Amino acid sequence: MDGSLVGAVSSYTFTNVTQDHTISVTFTSVAPGLVHNINKGTYYNTIQSALDDADNDNTIEVSNGTYDESITFPFIKKIILRSINGASSTIIRGNDDSATVISDSPREGTTLEGFTLTHVSGNKGKEIYTNGNLIIKNCTISGNATDWGRGGGIENYYGKITITGSTISDNYADIHGGGIYNLDGVLTITGSTISGNSAGSDGGGILGISSTTTIGGNNNAEKNVICGNYKIDEVLSLDQQRRDASGSLYETYKNTNYISVYCD
After folding, report:
1. 208-235 core/surface letters (b: 16 or more CB in 10 A; e: else)
2. Cα–Cα distances in angstroms (integers) from residue 44 to residues 71, 89, 103, in the given order
3. Considering the domain boundaries, does residue 42 fall inside one?
4. SS3 of 2, please?
5. Residues 44-80: pLDDT tens digits?
6. For 35-54, how does the pLDDT look when each residue is reduced to its tens digit (9 = 90+)?
């Protein structure tokens, strides 16, 4: 005011005005938060706070960055959670000894799109656990490990899960299903890569127990690349790429997927 700083004030009152005065104002933009519920027009600083506040059939967009948190989709709601610029720019790193993403009985259409899901090196925890409906699109699920657990990358427990255009690689389960463990769930995987996963007991790549599965398809866009998955302390083999309780399912899926012992 007249060349003198008066600070960040909400108002200023002139008194006894008898001459000209000069006012100079500087405005500073305050970031609204990196996570945006586009239906409500509300911004949040964490993904979980946005999920907790979401209503049914809301869409949440996440800006570029690394988010150190484990997240849980709300119970019996349909939520679309997507990144703005894709998996290479948007990373969620789960808490130690926790799954990075828990999908607890959400409604059909619940979607997770465009994220890299992982843990800090040395931390433990599977990547995704679901017992309901979940669509996974264009995600990278990598670098996760379980202690006394199943499904290093994904565990589908009586749920319905659809995976498209995603990469599930370099995950470890000390029991079953290094990449994916599917127990009595509906599992559909197309146009994805499942590679370099390992298990201590069985099913380095994908292990399904009494499950309904659609893995791959007849055209190139639907076929998955399944390769380089293995059981700890065993040589790489076709048997560990896709299995169920009865054994290897290589013959069942070899024509609808690109399955190989080694990855190019």
Report:
1. bbebebebbbeeeebbbbbbbbbbeeee
2. 14, 18, 20
3. yes
4. coil
5. 999 999 999 999 999 999 999 999 999 999 999 999 9
6. 999 999 999 999 999 999 99
Report how far residue 77's alpha carbon sits from residue 62's, in angstroms, rounded to the nearest whole number.
19
Confidence at 28, pLDDT banded by 50, 70, 90: very low
Residue 144: inside a domain: yes
User: Domain for residue 152, yes or no?
Assistant: yes
- Residue 253 phi/psi, 5° resolution? -110, 5
Q: How far apart are CA 222 and CA 84, in angstroms?
A: 25
Is 210 inside any structural domain? Answer: yes
Q: Are 186 and 159 in contact (CB under 8 A)?
A: yes
For the chain, the domain total comes to: 1
Q: Which residues pair with 183 in a beta bridge?
A: 157, 209
Residue-number span of the structural domain to which 166 is assigned: 35-260
